[in-house]
Amino acid sequence: MRAVRVRRAVDGLARPAVAAFSLAVAVGLWQAATVVWGIPSILLPAPTEVVAALRERPGQVAGHVLYTSYEIGLGWVAGVGAGMAAAGAMAASRRLRLAVYPLLVSVRIVPLIAIAPLLIVVFGATLRTRVLLAAILTFFPVTVATLDGLRSVPQGQLDLLRSVEASTWKRIRYVRLPNALPSVFAGVKIATPFAVEGVLIAEFLAASRGLGHAVLQAAAALDTPLLFGEVTLIVALGLALFGLVVLAERSIRWADDAAGIDGVGTGGVSAPTPERLVFGGVALAALVGVWLVGTVTVPNAGVFLPPPAAVAASLAETPGLFLRASASSLRKLVVGWGIGGAVGASLGAALAFAPRSRPVIGPFLVGARVTPSIVAAPLLLVWLGISVTAGIVLVALATFFPVAVATASGLTTLPERHRSLLDSVAAPRRTRLVVRLRFGLPTVIAGVKLSLISGLSGVVIAEWFVANGGLGVLVNQGMRNLQPALTYAAVACLFSLGMLLFGGASLLQRRLDFYSSD
Fold it and tell me: CB-side exposure of 107: number of CA atoms within 13 Å?
């Protein structure tokens, strides 16, 4: 036993050392590439130039880091807490879930960058607004993953507690939550970079301090070394927060009886399709009602918030324009998501099946995700120009992370009792893989659903900066030309496209028999 503890302690020390060594090698290769190939600083500054740019203004940079960290922390805590509470409430009440979940999906499917200016106008360019944007992005993945986990539980344990008349909340506390912890932490890990992105989007649009504001200033001045230095600090903040989540995950000992141990069911019978449609229609009507109220109550709403009738008229007048734009956006999303999903699944599988690769892959995986797409866009514009390729790369960058995290988490959720049984019968490697895939599919598909949402945001950013055509171009055109009806008509198309894709993934998730005894 003592030898095991010593070995675990050594492994715990070795992982950070390997991660640090991997980062050092990457920085060394970066330095060598800039020297050997003579890459201009405006395209790719050397690490020494980046460090020098940061050292020239230590007090200013430290102030931006502290303020952005404060905003990220507040937004992350608010979003994670609200997401878990909402998922628990919806798991406890089927009617509440049917009424609220479609509304949550409806709000989140609209890319945040398209509605952030509206939130800033309504609530002001304040700390509260920046925290709200971070919380909105964080809230949704935590809610989706937690709810999926709470509903994917061993039916036998639920039946046992029902037989002794245990309350709904006790069933959540003693059965659903322990079995849902892998999915919960997968959602929190997926959400963590979103907290960084939400704050930075707000700082890009309306802030006088913080790293987001500093990045814009450096980009406007074409100070690429300082820009890279500030982006590096953003990545470091994301890695630090992600590391705290991983430490918290490791400190919790999963229950041996993980999800699906009885090999039966996924937590209850789904609501009939007609009932789902009714509640979905009610949620959509509520959303339109809030929109109508906003056009009347929000000051100067006519400038930036057109009534639904005006948006419908814009769609009816030029249907071909919106169909072509939707087709263009869909092509970028499908190709970019395909590449990002394949990369994410491969990285997730490597993390799951080769644990020793985690210190090497992990920092680069999280670092790539916490680099905001809106920051990567200008760099892609310089490197690839305005092209479909640049747009696809940006969409892939926005989609690979949820798939990677969900795949890694899903493929490591096999209960210890099942592992022992497989060992006792000397099960072949292929059989073990099939069993792990069966247990991991709920978490993997939850990641796919989240990646579709982030992919839509990536499409909008890509079409703003690096690609011609698409709904993102129409959104931007409407904003610049003060044509709110055009902007919201394009947003409505994005919403419809997102609902179609998200609904298809959700239908696939419900149809699969994750825990069949075959």
Answer: 17
Say what the pTM is: 0.73
CB atoms within 10 A of CB 246: 16
CB 146 within 8 A of CB 83: yes
Round to whole Å and give the CA distance between 478 and 485. Answer: 7
Reduced to 3 states, what is the DSSP secondary structure of residue 206? Answer: coil
CA distance 505 to 186: 18
Mean pLDDT value across residues 105-116? 73
Amino acid at 254: W
Q: Where are the domains of the chain?
A: 42-260+268-511
Among candidates 214, 237, 464, which has minimal Cα distance to 370? 237
Alpha-carbon span 300 to 246, nearest angstrom: 46
Inter-CA distances, 83 with 44, 69, 79, 126, 510, Å? 39, 21, 6, 23, 21
pLDDT digits (tens, 9 = 90+) for 9-61: 445 545 667 777 777 888 888 888 888 888 888 778 889 999 998 888 888 88
8 Å CB contact between 242 and 191: no
Looking at the structure, give the CATH architecture of the domain made up of residues 42-260+268-511.
Orthogonal Bundle (1.10)
Q: At what angle do helices 58-92 and 224-251 cross, to 10 degrees?
A: 40
Q: CA Rg, the chain, in Å?
A: 24
